[in-house]
Amino acid sequence: MDWDDARIFLAVYRGGTLRAAAAALRVDQATVGRRLRALEQSLQARLFLHTPRGYVPTRAGELAMPAAEAMEHAADRLERLTQGTDESVSGTVRVTTSDTMGRGFLIRAIQQVRATHPQLRVVLTTSTLLSNLTRREADIAVRNVRPDNPDLISRRLSKPELGVYASKRYLKAHGEPRRGTAFEGHTVIAYQRAVFGARSETICGEAFGNAQVALEVNSGLMLLEAVAQGIGIAELPTYLGDATPGLERIWPDCGEFYDVWLVMHGDLHRSARVRALADAIVAVFEQAEEKPPPQRSRRPGRAGLSTS
C-alpha cells in the first residue's frame, strides 16, 4: 500500500461513506470509489462492507488501520519538518478559531501580516470543533482549550471576560432580570448543549431554568446577532458586547473569565510563514490588552427592577 492509497483508505474509514471521504480529500466521489476498489484488488482483501449505514471495516480493514495511520504520521512529520526549514514568508498557512475570535482578532492579524508579506495566503476556518494539528488540518489554532499533546506548543494570548447582555430594546420592553431568580420571566439565548455541554445551561454562572429559551445556536456570531435583534438575553465576550451598538451589559459585576491559547505543532514553529502569522496574532491580542475598555453608560433603574 502506498501513501496515496492509504489516504483513500483512511478517509473512507473515518468518514464512513464515499461522499464524506471525497469531501475530506477534496476529490470527486467516483475517484474515491475507483481507488478503493483498486486498493482492495491489489491487496486481494475486502477492506469494507457496503451496508445501509455506510462503509463498515472488515477484519482486514481493522488490521490495516494502524499501519495506514503510521504511514500518515510519517508523511505528516516529513511535511512539517521540511516546512519548518522554509525561511520564505510565502505560501499557505492554515489557521482555525471560533467565529467570534476570527471577527474580533484574527482578521486584523491577517490584514497586518499580509501588508508586510503579500505573498502569504491564509486559509481561515471558523468552527467550534477542535482541529487536529498533528494531521495538518491546521497549522495554527486559536482556542480556549490548552492541548495536552506534548508535540504541540501553546502560548496564552489573553483572558477575556464574559458578561450578560441584552439589547436596549429588549430591556425597555422587559426590564432587567433579578439576580438569583434563574431569569424568571425572561427570554434567553443559549449555546446548543453539543457545543458547550453543561455550561450551556448557565449564563455567567447564573442558571436560567426559569427562563424561556427562545433560541439555541452553535455560533458565537449568531448569538451576538440574536441578542442585537432583541430576541433575548445571552452571555457574550465583553470585547464583542461592549463594541456592539444597541447592547447593554446587565449586572456589570457578574462576569466569567476564560483563557485563549495560540497552539501550533512544535515542528512548524520554525517555519517563517507560520511564525509570521503567529507573531501577528500575538501582536493583535497584545494591542487589545493595552487598549482601555470603552466607557459605557448605565441605564437608570426602574421601579421594581434590579439594577445591581
From TrEMBL:
Family assignment? Belongs to the LysR transcriptional regulatory family.
Cell membrane keyword on record: no
Protein name, UniProt field: LysR family transcriptional regulator
The UniProt record lists the HTH lysR-type domain at 1-58
Q: What organism, scientifically named, is this protein from?
A: Bordetella genomosp. 8
Q: GO terms for biological process?
A: DNA-templated transcription
Q: Where is this region: Disordered?
A: 288-308
GO molecular function annotation: DNA-binding transcription factor activity; sequence-specific DNA binding
